[in-house]
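Let us practice reading a record.
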Amino acid sequence: AGYGTIDSTTIDSSSAPYRLKAYELGGRVVWYPLKKFKSLQVGGQLLYVKVDTDGPINGNGVTGTAAGTAFGPFAGYKLITAGGFTFLVQFGVEYLVAQAEAHDNTGASDSNSGSRFSPLLNLDVGWSF
């Protein structure tokens, strides 16, 4: 799970600054066919992401929201060193479905949606105890 903000200057430096709020929720199901909790992994991942404007953009009353879901299978490997450091890599393919809509202060609105396949890559570093 995650929450954060995105500053518009990283997206479009030519306009007045604005902020986007981002939410993320996801999970993985993992099976270890060779050794418990280390070695080869096979599994699946589901991820939901939503992005909202934090008020009107550029003073013209435009607000918007976008949301998407990605899910798919993966294979990977988990290495745990003698000191407990853990390295994990997972790769696969996922199917993405997304929808976005925007509204302005005149009542005009627009929306769009799409879907496609995309590569899936997870790289994790941590500590196991």
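A brief commentary: The chain has no helices and six strands.
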